[in-house]
Every structure is written in C-alpha cells, then in structure tokens.
Amino acid sequence: MSAPCLLLEDVTRIHGEGATSVPALAGVSLSVHPGELVAVMGPSGSGKSTLLNLAGGLDRATSGRVVIEGQEINSLTPRELAALRRRHVGFVFQDYNLIPALTAAENVALPLELDGQRVRAARRSAVESLELMGLADLVDRYPDQLSGGQQQRVAFARALVGGRRLVLADEPTGALDTHTGEEVLRVLRERCDAGTGGLLVTHEARHAAWADRVVFLRDGIVVDTTGDPSDAEDLLETEQVR
C-alpha cells in the first residue's frame, strides 16, 4: 500500500490551560491513503471538527504527530504550512467561507492564483471545477446571488480544484437537498477513486456509505472502526444508546 497522504499518530488536542482546560481529542490515530475515502461519525461534541481542523493544518495538536503528504506539520513555518495547504489540501467548511466580493469562479481560482498560477489558467481550472459541480451557468455570480446549496457546491469546487491530493469535508451536504447532496458525494467518491485521499465528517450513515472505512468518535476518542460502510447505521445506533 502507498504511503498515507494523511497520518495522525496519538494526537491530543486540549483547549485552555489548567483547571479550565477541555480535552477535545485524546490519543487519536488515523490514516488516509490515496484513493481512499474515510468517514468520521459521532455525536455533537465528540471531536469531529477538531480532528478535521488538525488534519488540515488549521489548528495545532497539543501532542502527537500530524503528517500531510509526508511532511510533519509541526516542523513547518507558517508560510510553509500555508503553501502545503494551498497545494495539497482542499477543505469544505460547514459555513462555506466564500469571499463575498469575489465571484464563484474567482473564489475557486483564488488558491491557484495565490500559488502563482496565471489568472487565465486559474480561471479555466475554476470553471471546469464549477461545471463538475453543476454550476456552469453561475460562474460569474457573487455569493449573495447564490442559494446556500449553490454556495456549498462552490466551496466543494474550490476544494477539488488543482488536483489536490487530500480533501477534507465537514458536513458538506448540510445545505443541500437529498439529490444534490448525493451528486456532490458522487463527485467526491470519483475523485478519491482517481487517487485523492478524502476525509468526510458526517452525521448521516447514508453519506458514510460512500466511504471505504468509517471511524466513530466519542468524547475525543476513537471508539470503533468498520471497514464495511453498510455497518455505519448499526454502529451509530449502538453509540447513541450508550
């Protein structure tokens, strides 16, 4: 098997200090390989979003190792970490994080331009990614001219543009209707089948069914893992009754 594009080893994240400290993750280990989609499930407050932020280098682990594309992120300078995220990591946030003053195409093209790509080439790649998301007619619309579901698909297009090797998605179908959500997950699944590694946080067992493996978090600890996504519903129900 090829080297993982994402590796977390015994990762702990504690918010605050002393008597007011709150552990968000406690000794979590997880790997995502190229071509693999891993789903993370768990109740609210279980540490799913914290895990995703650490996996994307948006936050630093209190202890343990986070390795992206063979680079341990704690050893990187802020500039090196920013470059790593631009080139290799696509992130789909729950609240989209689109820039209001930029069109859909400009939002998607921005990380490519920041990495030195010419404006015309970056726009071409952005339009192709938006077309993949079914937004061919909306490339020059601003975020406030788009519905919540359309904004989420723009965010997905931005995460996938440029052939990134790792895509992290935090409840990416929350603003989408059932049909559109399934189509977006199909695109993510196809990208993973083509060699990208994917980490998907979801509350929905039917969305986890698109994954190769499901990891279940509770109170910041990995409590179970299943290699059969069809077992995710049973796993979820088991944890809910504990």
Automatic annotation (TrEMBL):
<protein>
    <submittedName>
        <fullName>ABC transporter ATP-binding protein</fullName>
    </submittedName>
</protein>
<keyword id="KW-0067">ATP-binding</keyword>
<dbReference type="InterPro" id="IPR027417">
    <property type="entry name" value="P-loop_NTPase"/>
</dbReference>
<dbReference type="GO" id="GO:0098796">
    <property type="term" value="C:membrane protein complex"/>
</dbReference>
<dbReference type="GO" id="GO:0005886">
    <property type="term" value="C:plasma membrane"/>
</dbReference>
<dbReference type="GO" id="GO:0016887">
    <property type="term" value="F:ATP hydrolysis activity"/>
</dbReference>
<dbReference type="GO" id="GO:0005524">
    <property type="term" value="F:ATP binding"/>
</dbReference>
<feature type="domain" description="ABC transporter">
    <location>
        <begin position="6"/>
        <end position="238"/>
    </location>
</feature>
<dbReference type="InterPro" id="IPR015854">
    <property type="entry name" value="ABC_transpr_LolD-like"/>
</dbReference>
<dbReference type="Pfam" id="PF00005">
    <property type="entry name" value="ABC_tran"/>
</dbReference>
<dbReference type="InterPro" id="IPR003593">
    <property type="entry name" value="AAA+_ATPase"/>
</dbReference>
<keyword id="KW-0547">Nucleotide-binding</keyword>
<dbReference type="InterPro" id="IPR017871">
    <property type="entry name" value="ABC_transporter-like_CS"/>
</dbReference>
<dbReference type="InterPro" id="IPR003439">
    <property type="entry name" value="ABC_transporter-like_ATP-bd"/>
</dbReference>
<keyword id="KW-0813">Transport</keyword>
<dbReference type="GO" id="GO:0022857">
    <property type="term" value="F:transmembrane transporter activity"/>
</dbReference>
<dbReference type="InterPro" id="IPR017911">
    <property type="entry name" value="MacB-like_ATP-bd"/>
</dbReference>
